[in-house]
């Protein structure tokens, strides 16, 4: 029998945990529930989790801190649940490395669609295994190792990237010197259309600029084209192996 993906639901509301576990189980997933951060870490130790659905408001530790700590330990996909209107929390969640977010209250069918979309993206064939593709993408002294998901600076310092950071950088490197608007980037990164006043892409660009040591006031690598979007202003060289 084919192994079913296991989803960890971290939420302090018993009714939401029960509803989501039942719904995901009926839709061919395994589902595990945790009511707080302590139970989340226990579940991660006991089960082979494929994705975490993480509520921001928890009784012992806030979801943002848990997301940051989880991202420091692994690249496990995280879908954050936020309260309606809490834009600041959504922005910080993306900054902490969440792959996507969903605003409460939500339809379980939308949650299911988001989970499937995130899993598809994270399990896409690695670029280095695609025909006629290179493992390393080098630009302006930087090098992205697509197998290890490591970004190496001109001074040799290597930094692991979160899932969102990696996908954004890879998309920009695949389209150098071409302006991509927010709708295009949201669709390519998150597999959905951008919502009104959605600043997730802006936050991810800002975070990636920090990784690239690119001055946000006068960026030289990822430039903002006012009213249009973002462009990677660099020549990209593709190499079979990283130096």
Describe this structure in words.
- The protein has 243 residues and is of the alpha/beta class.
- It has two domains: 6-122, Rossmann fold; 127-239, Arc Repressor Mutant, subunit A.
- Helices cover 37% and strands 21% of the residues.
- The protein is built from eight helices and twelve strands.
- The protein has helices at 14-26, 37-46, 63-73, 87-95, 108-122, 163-174, 182-190, 200-211; strands spanning 6-10, 30-34, 51-55, 78-83, 100-104, 136-139, 142-145, 150-152, 158-160, 222-225, 229-232, 237-239.
- The strands form three sheets. It has a five-stranded parallel beta sheet, sandwiched between helices. Strands 9-8-7-6-12 form a five-stranded antiparallel beta sheet, with no helix packed on it. It has a two-stranded antiparallel ribbon with strand order 10-11.
- A hairpin with a 3-residue loop joins strand 10 and strand 11.
- Helix 6 packs across helix 7.
- The longest helix has 15 residues, at 108-122.
- The model is unreliable at 125-132 (pLDDT under 50).
Largest sheet report: 5 strands, parallel
Give the name of the CATH superfamily of the largest domain: Response regulator
Order of helices and strands: EHEHEHEHEHEEEEHHHEEE
What Rg, in angstroms, do the CA atoms define?
18 Å
Q: Strand share of the residues? A: 15-25%
Shape: elongated
Calculate the terminal CA-CA distance, rounded to whole Å: 42 Å
User: Structural class given helices, strands, pairing?
Assistant: alpha/beta
Strand elements, count: 12
Overall helicity: 25-40%
Strand order of the largest sheet: 2-1-3-4-5
CATH class of the largest domain: Alpha Beta
**What CATH architecture label of the largest domain applies?**
3-Layer(aba) Sandwich
- Whole-number average pLDDT? 82
Number of domains: 2
How many helices does DSSP assign?
Answer: 8
Low-confidence region ranges: 125-132
CATH topology grouping of the largest domain? Rossmann fold
